[in-house]
Amino acid sequence: MSADETLATCSETLVTCRDAALAFGRGAQAVVAVHGANLKIRAGDRLAVVGPSGSGKSSLLYLLAGLERPISGDVTWTGSLGAYDIGLVFQGDSLIPALSVLENACLPLVLAGRTETEAQEAARAALDRVGVVDLAERLPEEISGGQAQRAAAARVLAQAPRLILADEPTGRLDHATGARVLDALLTAADHTGAALVVTTHDPAVAARLTVRRSMRAGRLLTPEETP
Question: Cα–chain-centroid distance for residue 90?
Fold first, then answer.
């Protein structure tokens, strides 16, 4: 069995990387962030991508999400996977400053055509799951960084996407709060059958996902190379 086939859990492949590479800058100044990654993500997969800061974990997630295009190789998505079927929890601040926490959580649902009532119900339920529903009417500048991270996770959970990509979702949170956010991501993925990919440098977080792959200096290690 090849390295990129070890994540087989369900029949439908959602996204495939074949020798996908990503670089920033040009010429002699170019920095290669991902070297020839090979990976398949199937519905129901639970994957932790582990590595230190700067190892290329975030860049790999951006390739999987379609936010960056590979400079070589390719990334392909199943034809049944729509734009709103992919939810990305960013590592840094990602809430829209002019919108309340609730409005931020509602936005992807409204853009996808849900009614305001449906969007608010789903958003409030997601905010409650990560413990920030009491902050629903506040602006991002009125909450802490950790609370903003939880609200950003809720925005993705409210979408009920088929592929959840979470970039260090517990990195700015204390242990108990981080565990709650990870619980919510895992529960949401279990409920919908979504694939969940989490980047992390925390072994305790990685241990809660079924499959672990390591990144070192932009290279996605094979399962045999992963500690």
Answer: 7
C-alpha dist (Å) from residue 226 to 56, 74, 214, 217, 219: 15, 23, 5, 14, 11
Residue partners of 76: CB distance under 8 A and separation at least 6: 15, 16, 18
Where do runs of H (alpha helix) occur along the chain? 57-65, 101-111, 116-129, 145-159, 175-192, 203-206
User: 135-171 pLDDT, tens per residue?
Assistant: 999 999 999 988 999 999 999 999 999 999 999 999 8
Under 8 Å between Cβ of 71 and 21: yes
pLDDT tens profile 176-185: 989 999 999 9
- pTM of the full structure: 0.90
Query: Cβ distance 213 to 37 under 8 Å?
Result: no
- Say if CB 103 and CB 154 are below 8 A apart: no
Could you read off the pLDDT of 6-41 as tens digits, one per residue? Answer: 444 446 999 999 999 999 988 778 899 999 999 999
- Residue 79 DSSP symbol: T
Strands 86-89 and 13-24: unpaired
Give the integer Cα–Cα distance in Å for 86 and 65: 7
